[in-house]
Design brief:
single chain, mainly alpha, 1 helix, 79% helix
Length: 81
């Protein structure tokens, strides 16, 4: 009777260890996928930032080359009473 009890406990323990290792593997895969997503997002953000800064610099250069627009004075309106 002791051997069957020990065998059942041993089988249960092996089964629990298998479930635990599978769970740990899923967790590790999830963490790896999340890290990849974070890296991809950071790379994309950096690229978009570079493009935005380049565009802003080009816009500033273009604005510096254009003559300043002439402002026409606005006609004054008389107060109506």
């Amino acid at each position: 009777m002791r051997t069957s009890l020990t065998a059942r406990m041993s089988a249960g323990k092996r089964s629990a260890e298998l479930v635990r290792s599978q769970s740990q593997q899923r967790h590790n895969n999830l963490m790896r996928d999340q890290e990849r997503e974070r890296e991809a997002t950071a790379k994309k953000t950096a690229r978009l930032r570079e493009l935005r800064l380049a565009k802003e610099a080009a816009d500033r250069e273009e604005a510096a080359l254009k003559p300043a627009p002439v402002k026409r004075p606005r006609p004054r309106r008389s107060k109506q009473t």
